[in-house]
Amino acid sequence: MSIEQLKDQIPDFAKDVRLNLSSMASDETLSAQAKYGLFVACAIATRNPTVTAALESVAAAHLSPAALTAAKSAAAIMAMNNVYYRFVHLASNKEYATMPARLRMNVIANPGVDKADFELWSLAVSAINGCGTCIDAHEKVLQDAGVPTASIQTAVRFAAIIQSVAVAIEAAGVTVALAAE
After folding, report:
1. DSSP letters for 2-40
2. Which of 134, 142, 161, 166 is catalytic?
3. Residue 42 appears among annotated catalytic residues
4. For the residues 16-37, what does the mean pLDDT come to?
5. Does 131 participate in catalysis according to the annotation?
6. How confident is the model at residue 173 (pLDDT cuts 50, 70, 90)?
7. What is the pLDDT of residue 176?
């Protein structure tokens, strides 16, 4: 499935989402690997199979097998870390922050692609999942690596757009289902 086919699934009530998806697809401010890895990692984080299949299909033509795997790894490892560290941050009992997480996360240290790209993908997924602790940690690594603030903002903007595409498509399905009743 192409970006155009994905756009065709976005209902008219979400015209702005459709326009944002178009602008994201044509955005060339990030490297191809960073951009298309964001497509994959963020699509997986939405948990929407239509969005995931479409954006993974688009990205596959632009990513090496190692980069595609790393983008999927970023989504998977952040699914775990975002739950855990959001809990540690939100829990009233601050003793949890002093305890070892005991979660394997070797892929963060050795993702198989440029570390900054992997961190960008992890930050974007953390934004979708709403983990402030992880957002701060990944943003610091990116800043320390010299990644421009504008690139970090673009990654989070992409995450927001991809999440809104998933929500719009799901809302359209709900509308169709309710009309059938």
Report:
1. -HHHHHHTS-GGGHHHHHHHHHHHH--SS-HHHHHHHHH
2. 134
3. no
4. 95
5. yes
6. confident
7. 45
